[in-house]
From TrEMBL:
Belongs to the arginase family. Its cofactor is Mn(2+). It is an enzyme of class 3 (hydrolase). Its EC number is 3.5.3.1. It comes from Rhodoferax saidenbachensis. It catalyses: L-arginine + H2O = urea + L-ornithine. This is Arginase. GO terms for molecular function: arginase activity. The lineage of its organism: Bacteria, Pseudomonadati, Pseudomonadota, Betaproteobacteria, Burkholderiales.
């Protein structure tokens, strides 16, 4: 889908997190000029509707996220039906349930979805294991089929992701219940010490190979807290010693040129913590690197 129209979808959700500032992330990135920057790489870019969580209509935070997930999934599914490439801009990371449920549903007639999940956290809690009950800590478990029915069963089926088709890179803040679930399922997790030892390039290369094996399409869910907070301080839950932005820009350049690359999601941008716009610029540079046409991704003239 590398030559498809790039369709930006705002995911205005902060209700899944303890700090709700990420709800304004998509609007702030739009104001920062992310669409213009992507268009400057040579991509044809359009802004779609922003999907907004509506907590006043919900009985709980989890209920709010369930309703939001269903609406976001419907929006992303429509983008895919139009043969456009979605870029979902969050928003707290609970938006991943809607994004990747839609992609999995779209691919389902042909086969399975593969996903590289770049994050400081494992996001593999369920309502039964989470002390905070924050839904942004639950999307990985939900996509694997574990958690509340309103998150696991979008489009009427669960297990949107098979464990062997998911790789998590950069985790360094998590609880035992999360590692227990992922270990029991056999999910490949590259914790941050491994990333520092082997290098992000080697880790991502292995991850991409894994998620492409036995799948018909793959994507990336990139939580900005996967980056080192020295490069991206404006996130919902920053954690020290992450992936350096320079490494991410180099390694991920042009990855959307793979014909099997279906969608990209960027989450947890919190403009209320982003003094001077450093993180907005990092986010913009990141998506431009990943989604640019190959010539631009390699730093050549288009």
């Amino acid at each position: 889908m590398s030559n498809a129209v790039l369709h930006l979808v705002g995911a205005a959700v902060g209700e899944g997190a303890s700090d709700g500032g990420c709800k304004w992330g998509a609007a702030a990135l739009r104001e920062h000029g992310i669409a213009q920057a992507l268009a400057a790489t040579g991509r044809t870019v359009t802004w779609g509707d922003t999907v907004t969580a509506q907590p006043m209509l919900a009985t709980s935070r989890l209920n709010a996220i369930e309703g939001f997930s269903e609406r976001l999934a419907g929006t992303v599914a429509q983008v895919l039906r139009q043969n456009q490439q979605p870029l979902v801009l969050g928003g707290d990371h609970s938006c991943a349930v809607g994004t990747w449920s839609a992609v999995a549903e779209h691919l389902r007639p042909q086969g399975a979805l593969g996903l590289v999940w770049i994050d400081a956290h494992l996001d593999a809690h369920t309502p039964d294991t989470s002390d905070s009950q924050a839904p942004h800590g639950m999307p990985v478990a939900a996509l694997l089929g574990h958690g509340s029915v309103g998150m696991t069963d979008l489009f009427g089926w669960r297990h949107k992701l098979r464990p062997e088709h998911l790789v998590i890179i950069g985790a360094r803040s998590y609880e035992p219940a999360e590692t227990a679930l992922l270990d029991s399922l056999g999910v490949r997790v590259m914790f941050m010490p491994e990333v520092l030892e082997r290098g992000f390039a080697a880790c991502f290369d292995e991850a991409r190979t894994r998620v492409q094996a036995g799948t018909v399409g793959w994507g990336i869910s990139f939580d900005l807290d996967g980056l080192d907070p020295r490069d991206a301080p404006g996130t919902g839950t920053p954690v020290e010693q992450g992936i350096r932005l320079a490494d991410a820009l180099q390694v991920l350049a042009g990855c959307s040129q793979d014909p099997q690359f279906v969608a990209l999601e960027l989450t947890e941008y919190n403009p209320l913590r982003d003094f001077g716009g450093q993180t907005a610029q990092a986010a913009t540079d990141l998506v431009c690197s990943m989604l640019a046409p190959q010539a631009n991704a390699l730093g050549l003239a288009a």
